[in-house]
Amino acid sequence: MRIDAHPLVVAAALGLLGPAALADDETGPGRDGPLSGVWSRAASAEVADTAGARLELIPVEDRLLVDAGDDGAATWTLLDDGRAQLRVDGPEHRLERTLAVEADRLVVSTRLCQNGTCVEFDEQYRREV
Question: Is the pTM of this model over 0.70?
Answer without folding.
Answer: no
